[in-house]
């Protein structure tokens, strides 16, 4: 942009001002641009981008003010100030200056212009009109920046909501099965790479169909939501994967835990239902709502696969049901 302006400006400026003009561009404005460009290669530049952009563009604009003053003092030439507007709009819309920084940037740009025209009345009777033009241009730029930023914020919020809806089970707000599969794959690879421990729990509500048929789907849904709440209260780490596996069945993946901790988790899950003491008594069930748990704990090694761990945890759940339900079983190699 600066190079394009140079050829046009030099064609209209008298030769006596060429060196001053070239000095302002080559020795002042270009170095600012190159410093900003060089800064983009720094590791943490993204965190300071807005501040660096604002400072750089303000420097270029005030160098432009200096050039306008030099042209007036040296040759009585009224140099165009429209470049100030172009730089400002370019910063806001092309370089995506944030609204917060744009407000400070616009105030400094306008203040500098007002001070310049008051000290050097080069625009004569048109001073007020020119100040108004710069003011309105900056205002339009600010308005546009605000509208764009507001639109992007709303779009981001909608995308976040859509992502949440696509990743979670609508009834329990836990991860759905598709998201669980994706996250488990990543977690499994990390655990295998770090040779850490990994445990998979498969949890199933006991005689849930009898409860659902006997008390109705609304109460059945509440029981499923309660199971989700119980699991979320125990498995709270960011690395824990808690998902609804299907129907009344849930799955949990947790890493860097001991066998003893896994036993504690299972006992806590059973104790939660005992404390809630929600009546059941339908069909083959006992007096209260309970759950059965199967889990498989392993020290990761290259021979273990994701599928085998889930299969063995599911087998342990089957054994827990065979033992009479309302208990947990850890799969152990025979």
Can you lay out the helices and strands and say which pair or pack?
Elements: H1 2-12, H2 18-39, H3 49-75, H4 82-94, H5 99-119, H6 127-167, H7 177-194, E1 197-205, H8 208-215, H9 217-234, E2 241-246, E3 249-255, H10 259-276, E4 291-299, H11 306-322, E5 328-330
Parallel strand pairs: 4-5
Antiparallel strand pairs: 1-3, 1-4, 2-3
Helix pairs in contact: 2-3, 3-4, 3-5, 4-6, 5-6, 8-9
How does this model look, in words?
With 334 residues, the protein is an alpha+beta fold. Helix 3 runs parallel beside helix 5 and helix 4 (82-94) packs parallel to helix 6. The protein starts with a helix and ends with a strand. The longest helix is centred in the middle third of the chain and has 41 residues, at 127-167. It folds into 2 domains: 2-164, no CATH class; 177-330, Alpha-Beta Plaits (2-Layer Sandwich). It contains 11 helices and 5 strands; from the N terminus they run αααααααβααββαβαβ. Helix content is 64%, strand content 10%. Strands 2-3-1-4-5 form a 5-stranded mixed β-sheet, with helices on both faces.
């Amino acid at each position: 942009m600066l190079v394009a302006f140079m050829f046009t400006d030099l064609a209209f400026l008298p030769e006596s001002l060429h060196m001053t003009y070239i000095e302002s561009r080559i020795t002042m404005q270009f170095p600012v641009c190159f410093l900003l460009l060089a800064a983009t290669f720094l590791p943490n530049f993204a965190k300071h981008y807005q501040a660096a952009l604002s400072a750089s563009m303000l420097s270029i604009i005030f160098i432009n003010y200096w050039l306008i003053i030099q042209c007036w003092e040296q040759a009585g030439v009224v140099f165009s100030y429209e470049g100030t507007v172009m730089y400002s709009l370019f910063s806001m819309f092309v370089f995506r200056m944030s609204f917060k920084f744009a407000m400070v940037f616009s105030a400094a740009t306008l203040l500098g212009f007002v001070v310049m025209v008051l000290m050097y009345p080069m625009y004569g009777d048109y001073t007020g009109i020119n100040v108004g033009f710069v003011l309105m241009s900056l205002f339009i730029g600010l308005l546009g920046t605000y509208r764009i930023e507001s639109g992007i914020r709303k779009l981001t919020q909608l995308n976040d909501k859509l992502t949440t809806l696509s990743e979670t089970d609508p009834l329990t707000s836990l991860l759905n099965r598709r998201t669980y599969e994706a996250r488990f794959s990543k977690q499994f690879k990390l655990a295998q790479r770090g040779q850490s421990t990994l445990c998979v729990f498969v949890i199933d509500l006991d005689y849930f169909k009898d409860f659902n048929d006997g008390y109705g789907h609304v109460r059945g849904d509440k029981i499923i939501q309660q199971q989700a709440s119980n699991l979320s209260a125990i498995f709270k780490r960011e690395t824990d994967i808690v998902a609804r596996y299907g129907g009344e069945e849930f799955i949990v993946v947790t890493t860097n835990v001991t066998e003893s901790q896994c036993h504690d988790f299972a006992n806590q899950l059973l104790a939660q239902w005992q404390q809630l003491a929600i009546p059941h008594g339908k069909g083959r069930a006992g007096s209260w709502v309970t759950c059965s748990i199967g889990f498989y704990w392993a020290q990761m090694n290259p021979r273990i696969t994701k599928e085998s761990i889930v299969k063995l945890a599911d087998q342990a759940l089957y054994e827990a049901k065979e033992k009479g339900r309302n208990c947990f079983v850890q799969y152990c190699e025979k």
